[in-house]
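Human: I'm a chemist; would you kindly supply sequence and structure tokens for a protein?

Assistant:
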Amino acid sequence: MADGTRDADPRDANLELLFCTNVLGLRSLHYGCWIDGEELSLENFKAAQIRYTEQLIGLVPADAHEVLDVGCGTGEIARVLAARGHHVTAISPDNAHWKIGEREEAGIAYVRTRFEDLNLDRTFDLILMAESQNYIDTARGFAQCRRYLRDGGHLLVSGIFGRADVPRADLPAFVENTDAGFVSGAAEHGLHVVSRQDITTRVLPTLDFCRATYEQYVQPTIGIAGLWLIRRPVIGALVRLALKNERRALQRVRGYYLDRFDAALFARTCRYLTLLFVRDDAHVKIRP
């Protein structure tokens, strides 16, 4: 879980969301789950995302009727859960996410808030964090899990973790927690692991696909736009001046995603894990 004070620039989030939904036509933003040997294509990427959702929901305990979806994104996982009879409270603080789709859906209550700021008078059978744990303050996040999980309830976390055997300085900037550190931190708050799956090799093709898409489409488009501005020096100077802040945001996005799309770096420093925790106060010593 990342420090909650390090919020992403809204323009960055909008750019990512618009590219994924309007250009690629994706209904979800997660990494997906590939089958060995699949061709790197957009259709197979969409299939991998559907497969990821199915496998994640397959880990939801049968008695988890009330679900809190933390960082719901476009709401795709919440919709599948609701269609299968779960009652879902889905939360996200991102302005961009609220522009995607209709927010009044059967079985889903959407709340626009950070998890750290959530204030409800109820508990849940399951808290789901699908690729959202790196955006939530660690200590506050675990405290909120204890507040909102009933005793015997579950926390299902699926996302990127740094390898515990890699020095912190060598981890990618977008990774805040090691796998071992996250698990031990959870235990200190009365949450212990009952299931652990490492699907790193099954998400790596997504990085290769996104890198190829960037190099094949995005980078040439930026180059063509730059060439057009060079050939029109007066207009180019005015555009560069008017869009100075946007250009800086684009540079941040470019650096951010080039790191994220480096499959070799990911495999060397990170793991993609799906962890199922249970809250069991009777067997865990809770830190005061």
User: Anything to note?
Assistant: Residues 246 and 253 are 10 Å apart (CA to CA).
